[in-house]
Design goal:
The chain is α+β, with helices and mostly antiparallel strands and about 160 residues long. The chain has two domains: about 70 residues; about 70 residues, no CATH class. It contains two helices and eleven strands, in the order βββββαββββββα. A five-stranded antiparallel β-sheet has the order 1-2-3-4-5. A three-stranded antiparallel β-sheet has the order 6-7-8. Strands 9-10-11 form a three-stranded antiparallel β-sheet, with no helix packed on it. β3 and β4 form a beta hairpin. The longest helix is centred in the middle third of the chain and has 14 residues.
Amino acid sequence: MSDADFTLHEDARGRLQLRLADGRTFEGVVPVRAFPLGAPEEFIGLVANDGHEVLHIPRLADLPEPTRELLARHIRQREFVPRIEAIESCTAFATPTTWTVRTDRGRTELILKAEEDIRRLGQGRLLVTNSHGLHFEVADLAKLDATSRRILARFM
């Protein structure tokens, strides 16, 4: 895909505007990752207001820098997944349990209903889902402090 295939920019309200090479334009398109956890930089769809994909982008890395950064910023705004930097405490070593965690967005408490709320993603990554269905990521299990790893080990 070349940058001649389409142009992308923000309107005055910060919404993405897409213009295809054939002249068709789409206002308010939304970037959606097909595989946000397994392949976050690949298979990005631009979805129109009617919910249909109007453009498929195989790899973000193949786009020119301004377009790639614009899309990445809009994806980050849409997908809120705080990263757990430390697990400070947990109320019990059986579920349900309440964890006090420090994330890249600040300190918070998570209620885990079952051990299945912690999923391995590979390469030392974990996805933790709280009782409200919100996702939290552990980017690298090996980089957590000893207390955090010890707490996690009890649940995995």
